[in-house]
Amino acid sequence: MARKLQDAQLNNRTSREKLNVRKKPYFRFIDKGCHLGYYKGTLGGTWIARYFNKSGRYEEVKIGVADDKRDADGIKVFSFSQARAKTEAWFTEQMLREEGLNSTGVYTVSDALNDYLSNYLQRGGKAIRDVKSRISSLIFPYLGEVHAQKLKTQQIRDWHNELANTPPRLRTRRGNIQAYKSPQDDLEYVRRRKATANRILTILKAALNYGFQEGKITSDKAWRRIKPFREVETAKIRYLSHTESSRLSNTCDPEFRPLVQAALLTGCRYSELTNLKRNDFDPTSGTLTVRISKSGRARHVALNSEGVSFFSTMTAGIPNESFIFTMNNGNQWGKSYQQRRLKNACQRANIEPIVTFHILRHTYATHLVQAGIPLTVIAANLGHSDTRMTAKHYAHLAPSYVADVIRTSMPKFGLVEDLNIHIFSKNSNSLGGV
Model confidence over 250-261: pLDDT tens digits? Predict the structure, then answer.
């Protein structure tokens, strides 16, 4: 229960001028668990609101500047009465939110999405930027204002189909009309659009399920009936051969090359590598500790002898808390600094189509699978929670008993004339490893 604080004389400028400057605000009791605060600074005052929520913690929000030096305008500068009115409105919103309602008394799809995002952050979700972007651009505008209790199956189905039929969005300047890529008339394009629609449907369902589990939505029938598009998730995995990998590494600029080499040796994501510190490498056990990952869970990446040698060189003479990979100026690598550099390296190495940094992760996993490493081991090194994701993308590349038997035992029909052409093995340097 909130503790009622002694009222301070905040009603007018004259009484506030007599208050001492201090770090802690002066609070005035408004209602149970609700207070209007006044922070007295050396250059003037600021209004804040404080609410004691059901979890037993205070939530605070800045209302605006007090009218100590300037006349109130109700927008940025507030008198006591204006600040109190805005504070009471904010209190009402907080109480309704705790009851699962918005300011209109209706729990909308937008409310469910906001609750889901808050929970996602609390659980340590690392893809928050991507999830927020998809929600704000592809779910809010179409379903955001719909009453979650009255959401219809057909509404979701129509939205899901429209996503699949809409071309990919292009980066557009704020305020301009959204631009789109030109649609394509091929099966792979259709597959990719349906796969994207499925991923966004997954986010919507997760948000609505969270609202249902929290008791804010009474039935989950509307979205439980919606099924994702089938057989659209299996794409051909692009990866580099050993020769292509070597060629790409050699054509990278010297500043960027260590990151590419590390990705090929570990299968780590770009963000995981750029956050590695000296004490994350253990040369004795030959492992890397990835503390910041997409899943939010730490993992240990086992290295081969080449990987141990590489990281021993990279960490020689640097302090334990220093980043292993930094730019020449000593700064940490930024979020998107890899894109242009990798594109330029691919062009110099004559690698087509140009690969992304994530393809280096695919390359690492693919060569492990082709070497016969068990999927459970690969899943652990990649940070997958189980083997389903690993099997989905790479199982078809694993050495197959069925394929070996067919190739060695099936009789020839004599339909193809033998040609005097030597077929090089996959790792042959004579044909570039392909």
Answer: 999 999 999 999
